[in-house]
Write a structure and sequence with these properties.
Blueprint (H helix, E strand, L loop, with lengths): L1 E5 L3 H13 L3 E5 L10 H4 L9 E4 L5 E4 L1 H12 L7 H31 L5 H24 L10 H10 L2 H4 L7 H11 L2 H6 L10 H12 L2
Parallel strand pairs: 1-2
Antiparallel strand pairs: 1-3, 3-4
Pfam families: GST_C, GST_N
Protein name: Glutathione S-transferase N-terminal domain-containing protein
InterPro entries: Glutathione-S-Trfase_C-like, Glutathione-S-Trfase_C_sf, Glutathione_S-Trfase, Glutathione_S-Trfase_N, GST_C, Thioredoxin-like_sf
């Protein structure tokens, strides 16, 4: 049994998708950002960085893993799924996973902050992160013109990590015009049952975009 500590965010959805894809039993513990539950001592004992997601593997001496990329690697190695054994193919998957971790997630995250949440609109910051997000989309489109999936012709944890972010491109203000291969990949993964289940685990809070922006604005300006 895996205990998953998470919230309804792209980083959280990565792990719920992976757990669904891998067929692992898991329990969801949804953290409430509005009350800073992720900063409380109980959760800091699991993840000292105070961020979701984190897991506890109850079948492996209550082993704790935090950071979404590290969790994906751990689960792939635990199950032998979505990470090739061949050293070169394995490296390709890890390269694209790191591409998401160091590029797509941070750039789109900052685009979200300045485009949606920050109380003061700073055009230069918005343009910077949206342009970089678009550039990264173009890199993926070029790769997907040659391969069905990001790391080659196999669906892997690199796709699982990246899809929850790319699917919210409109929220980040990043357009998909002229990126047919990336759009095809986005649509194809949206048909996978595990992706469909993963992006509602945990269920998003029922609120308007304006209410959501105000709630997250409080967090990013503290």
């Amino acid at each position: 049994m895996i205990d998953l500590y998470t919230a309804a965010t792209p980083n959280g959805f990565k792990i719920s998708i992976a757990l669904e894809e891998m067929g692992l039993d898991y329990r969801v513990h949804k953290l409430d950002f509005s009350t800073n539950e992720q900063k409380q001592p109980e959760f800091l004992a699991i993840n000292p960085n105070g961020r979701i997601p984190a897991i506890i593997d109850r079948d492996n001496d209550d082993f704790v893993v935090f950071e979404s990329g590290a969790i994906l690697l751990y689960l792939a190695e635990k199950t032998g799924q979505f990470l090739p054994a061949d050293p070169k193919k394995r490296s390709q998957v890890i390269q694209w996973l790191m591409f998401q971790m160091s590029g797509v997630g941070p750039m789109m995250g900052q685009a979200n902050v300045f485009y949606r949440y920050f109380p003061e609109k700073i055009p230069a910051a918005i343009e910077r992160y949206q342009k970089e997000g678009r550039r990264l989309f173009e890199v993926m489109d070029t790769q997907l013109a040659k391969h069905q999936y990001l790391a080659g012709d196999e669906y892997t944890i690199a796709d699982i990590a990246t899809w929850p972010w790319v699917r919210i491109h409109e929220w980040s203000g990043i357009n998909m015009v002229g990126l047919p291969h990336l759009q095809h990949w986005l649509d194809e993964l949206a048909q996978r049952p595990a992706c469909q289940k993963g992006i509602v685990t945990p269920p998003p809070a029922v609120m308007t975009d304006e209410e959501r922006a105000k709630q997250i604005q409080k967090m990013v300006t503290k």
